[in-house]
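Predict the structure of MFS transporter.
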Amino acid sequence: MTSVPPTDAVATPDAPKPNWREAFAVYLQPRVLIVLFLGFSSGLPLALSGSTLLVWMRESGVDLGTIGLFALVGTPYTLKFIWAPLVDALHVPLLSRLFGRRRGWLVATQLLLIAAILLLALTDPARAPVFVALGALLVAAASATQDIVVDAFRVESLPENEQAAGMASYVAAYRIGMLISTAGVLFLVSAYEGTGVTRATAWMWGYVTMAAMVLIGTVTALLATEPEASVRAEAATSADSAFTRVMRAAVGAFSEFLVRKDALAALAFVVLFKFTDAFSGTMTAPFVIDLGFSRNDYAAIVKGVGLAATLIGGFAGGYLARRYSLVTSLWIGAVLQAVSNLAFAWLATVGVNQWALALAISVENFTGAIGTVIFVAYLSALCQNPLHTATQYALLTALSAVGRTYLSAGAGYVAQATGWPLFFMISVAVAAPSLVLLAWLQRRAHFATLGPVRV
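Done. Here is the predicted structure for MFS transporter.
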């Protein structure tokens, strides 16, 4: 893992300054490229059970309150730590023997994900929202399981000098995957409608196309090599029973973390850091549609300007994580992602203006990517044992999903009660608890205790 200076000061004077040529070259390392494509694979399905599905539902006439409650289908992202010990300890029949401990699970989860997306494609939000919820829940479950494996693979496969580049590449590709499954799907739906098919059929084929794109991750898993840390951990426990391995992964992941100083405060910080982003992000797509923008206007801006802002923000976050201490980077990311919500409050007062929408989307994507890269760096620094990397990282990311899944579930009702400008101002204010916790943890020297992965 990336080493973290004990204070929040800029790198020491005798530390080597980043060389841009060398910094760029590290992004072309095979391990970093593998992580990049796996990041795309992880980001692709999230919007299919989230914001893209909400646009589909809104166009089908579903009310805002019900749309807000659909945030609950993200429950698997919150509970994935429950089955993460199985991923750490058990083998997938045939696939694990052919490809290894992590890669076998990667291929298996991606095949399940394809099947779940195809099932969701066959549902109808207007006539059977219950079946839509079931299909979205299955997509989220398969996607959450894939995230468990990808996160463990990333943490275990990258050496310390490639961690910053790996995190930046992973997050940038993750956001690109999300953009393709939002703006890309909206473009596809419009294109399919242009051929003369009904809107419901166009949405179905849009989701079928996304199911096919999951194969990018499958090919990446087949081309990758098993992480050395995973191979050594597997060899060290090969004589143990499956039950013993599961219990070691489950108990070890929890006990090792909970005995740390200020563990509960750190867990609360994990829950709240991205809450401001999640609270506003839950309603961004319905907001843009309600404001009067067409589906294609929104898609074009998200896919064009938004994509560029995401890439720049992702690599900017990687630079910050490498250049500054972790706590300083967290402060920058926390403030930026909170203040960026004011761009949408401003857009609500401007009305239908494509330049204003482009600016708001750019600000959100840029700051969101920075915050996510730095947050991933923090979560990765908390995971320090390859025997239960998947379980421990899954626990942390599951907790971080609480804000998106449960705390944000009432965002639609808040928007209905307050109106859009005030709603986005409230989304800035909800960042306050995370900032207070960040200051408290910094004062307690929490970040000075974090270090590289130990084998």
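The chain has one domain: 20-449.
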